[in-house]
């Protein structure tokens, strides 16, 4: 009996993350998880629309300068105060429209690649894998790792998303740990990731996992996006590059996300 209890505790330690009385289990993706994974991924991306359109505005003084110049120009041309009054609403609507357009384009691109055939993409090579986090029998999070041998032996953390109702329960930390275990087991020297999120919670999670920001690309252009002049005016993001050196990584066990 003691041996069986020990084996059970060992299994929880290796595959689960305790959160109070609940255990978060992180396991490899199976075909039955596909609908939940795609839903969580979609909902996470759609949250980026208002985040980019509205919260991101205060992080781009160059965009505010352009909008101010547009306001002055409109006033000089029209001399109508009601046009000036409408301009802020027009700007916000433009930012929302183009943020949604770019993110939908990114979603379509992801669905045509790995997220449309998760099992086929992530089981082709031992250097890639996708995991789900399960809490109380429900899939509540997803994360993937893809080996980047051309990047100096790094593995890229991708597709991390947590169900909105289960955030700050340790799900993000449990998923991040699984990627770290994968990197160590496959002898990768580092883990890299990129994000255009402006929410502080996302950046705090990466830092809690041991990542450090190694660069920021201002005016990041989404891969495969079709750019127009209006899109360049109304859609502008910062892309943060994070890196974690596997031998020196430290994860705080009581981190919550």
TrEMBL record:
A GO cellular component annotation in the UniProt record: mitochondrial membrane
Enzyme Commission (EC) number: 2.3.1.17
EC top class named in words: transferase
Gene3D superfamilies attached to this UniProt entry: 3.40.630.30
Sequence intervals crossing the membrane: 64-92
Keyword Transmembrane set for record: yes
Residue intervals of the N-acetyltransferase domain: 89-232
Membrane protein topology class: Single-pass membrane protein
Origin superkingdom: Eukaryota
UniProt cross-references to InterPro entries, sorted A to Z: Acyl_CoA_acyltransferase, GNAT_dom, NAT_camello-type
Major place of residence: cytoplasm
Family annotation (PROSITE patterns): GNAT
Protein name: N-acetylaspartate synthetase
Compartmental location: Cytoplasm; Endoplasmic reticulum membrane; Microsome membrane; Mitochondrion membrane
Coiled coil: none
UniProt family annotation: Belongs to the NAT8 family.
Keyword terms, alphabetized: Acyltransferase, Cytoplasm, Endoplasmic reticulum, Membrane, Microsome, Mitochondrion, Transferase, Transmembrane, Transmembrane helix
Catalytic reaction annotation: L-aspartate + acetyl-CoA = N-acetyl-L-aspartate + CoA + H(+)
């Amino acid at each position: 009996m003691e041996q069986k209890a020990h084996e059970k505790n060992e299994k929880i330690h290796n595959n689960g993350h305790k959160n109070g009385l609940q255990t978060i289990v992180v396991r490899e993706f199976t075909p039955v998880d596909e609908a939940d994974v795609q839903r969580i991924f979609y909902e996470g991306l759609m949250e980026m629309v208002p985040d980019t359109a509205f919260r991101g505005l205060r992080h781009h003084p160059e965009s505010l300068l352009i909008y101010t110049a547009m306001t002055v120009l409109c006033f000089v041309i029209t001399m109508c105060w009601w046009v000036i009054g409408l301009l802020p609403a027009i700007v916000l609507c433009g930012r929302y429209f183009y943020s949604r357009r770019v993110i939908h384009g990114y979603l379509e691109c992801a669905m045509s690649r790995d997220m449309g055939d998760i099992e086929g993409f992530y089981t082709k090579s031992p250097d890639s894998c996708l995991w789900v986090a399960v809490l109380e029998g429900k899939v509540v999070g997803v994360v993937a790792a893809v080996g980047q041998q051309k990047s100096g032996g790094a593995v890229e953390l991708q597709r991390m998303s947590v169900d909105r109702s289960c955030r700050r329960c340790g799900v993000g930390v449990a998923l991040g740990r699984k990627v770290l275990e994968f990197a160590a087991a496959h002898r990768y020297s580092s883990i890299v990731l990129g994000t255009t999120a402006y929410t502080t919670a996302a950046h705090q999670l990466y830092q809690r996992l041991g990542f450090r920001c190694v660069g920021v690309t201002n005016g990041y252009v989404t891969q495969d996006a079709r750019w127009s002049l209006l899109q360049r005016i109304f859609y502008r993001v910062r892309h943060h590059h994070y890196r974690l050196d596997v031998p020196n990584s430290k994860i705080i066990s009581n981190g919550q996300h």
